[in-house]
Every structure is written in C-alpha cells, then in structure tokens.
Amino acid sequence: MDRLNHFIDHYGKKDFTVGTLGPSGSSSEAATQFLLGSFFEQYEANVTLYDSFEMCLDTLGTGDIDAAVVPHAYPKINLFYMNPNLELTYMFRMDTPMYGLAARHDYVFHEEALTNEIVLSHPAPVSLMDFYCAPKIKEKPIQYKLISSTSKAAQLVAEGHYNLALTNWNAIQTYNLTFVMTFEPIRMSWSMFTKRRLV
Q1: Is the per-residue pLDDT at 60 higher than 70?
Q2: Most buried pick, 16, 43, 115, 152, via CB within 10 A?
C-alpha cells in the first residue's frame, strides 16, 4: 500500500495513463477501471488498451504510460516481475465478469457446434470451457483458435469472421453478442506495475 500511496502522491495531481489488454470489453479493462475507481476516483486517469501485454510492457518501459495492470493468469507475467526497470506497485483481487460461450444473435447454436465449429479464445480460460463442456462432447475435442484476448474474440465473431467465442459479459455487451452457454466469473488477482524510478 505504501508504494501505491507513493504513486498517487506522484501522479494523482495530474493526468496519468494506465495501460492494459484490450480491445474494449476485456476483463483487464474492467479490472483497471475497478482499480481507478477504488483509489483514483478524484483524479484524471486514462486507460489505454493494447493488443498484447507485451506491447503494454514495451510502452510502460518507454514511459508513454505510467502504469500497467496485468492479471496473474497471464502466462508471461514474469516479464513484468523480472524487469529491473519496473516494480510491483499494488496487487488486488477482482473477479472477472461472467464467462461463457458467445455467438451473434442470428446464429442458431446446437451442442454439435462445440466440436464442429472453431471457438475463438484467449489461452487462459480454455480449461474453464473444457470443464463445463466435457459432459456434452464425446470423442471429438473442441477446436480452438487462440488469440490475444477474449474481447478480441468477441469482436471477430461480431464482424462475422467466426461464429463462437469464449468471452465475458462485458465483451458481449460491447459487441452485441449473446451467451449460448454460461460458465462463471473467474476469481482473479491482478498486479499493477510502474517504473522503478518511483521507489
């Protein structure tokens, strides 16, 4: 908490920018907004969304953003923790929005689609879908196309490139999709990183 207070003292009286994974509708965006609403409500704080956490890391390193919010489910989070130019400023828990399998409103979903269609997803929540769908599928496995975020998956389905996405409630609202199956929110913890010069 001391480091977060130091960050607030340093940046709270002027505009600052926090980066995380996009596009709009991502759980990372929701977590960042939760953090800003909890500690920075009275300040001018902006959120910048990136196509990958690697891009977020690079931009934090160059100083073009002032902080980054990263979920502990991100498999390369060590890139942030082990970077000598960065420091862990704050850790917090925020459950994600509801996760589920989403489609466009005009798509007629049948359980056979679980193995006949490609499902777009970020790698992290795939095991959640496998757990809930295992009783519904026989020998043929679900086919996934793994991409940078579940909100990007929702966007691509909305644009008609694919029919099904494993995504969250915020993303289906953003891209006007509908849940054809619901699973659960993901109980998640997050890290906020800043430049080490603030120590």
Answers
A1: yes
A2: 152
